[in-house]
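Friendly challenge for the regulars: who can give me the structure tokens for this chain first? No prize, just bragging rights.
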Amino acid sequence: MDMTYETQTTTGHYRRLRERFLANGLDGFLDYEVVELLLKLADPRPDHKPTAKALLARFKSLGGILEAPPSLLKAVQGVGDRNIFGLRLVQAVARRYLKEEIIHKDYIQSADQVIAYLVHNLKNRNREQFVIILLNGRNQLIDLVTIFEGSLTTSAVYPREVVKLILERDAAAVILVHNHPSGSVTPSQDDHRITKRLKQACQSIDVQLHDHLIIGGNDYYSFADHGLL
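First reply, four minutes later:
Bragging rights claimed.
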């Protein structure tokens, strides 16, 4: 095929994708088309469709691609640092936007929105993350802080670090959150032990522990809802 014709064809293809997005957002887009656009953000090469389809075949979903480590992404033919920039940028922007949407809101009134943010932020993580949600005396969100990443065990989360964070931010209440990369939301024995230790630490400084949430896939488990706090 004539290279000039091929370049013109692919240029027209991406122009049509852009026009579709600007007109209707992502409605009607297939996952590989979304990935194509992200790969194209910082990479002028003409055709990213084969790479986009290869990424979906390897990581199974858009979420799987966005959460995959750069080393694994680069193992797919056609993926380089410029492509990873595009993939990482959109994920980071989405997370910052969703976080800003819930900061300073009343937790009780916006609990569904907070949980939606947590599910979006944690469901595809391939490592466990432990997050503290800090609330003021009016139950408004002050901040969400990740204090640990890795395999969660009783010795992994230090109560003194949690207490230090609470005092620094002048929080009146907290919610504990962590994810299960397996997708199961059933609490482990370590989850129960960590909850007990951190509840005692919060009580020692007269701070209320409202809940401990476990995120797994699109589901979650609430210690408070199950009468465990």
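The chain has a mean pLDDT of 89. The longest strand covers residues 141-149. Your move, everyone else.
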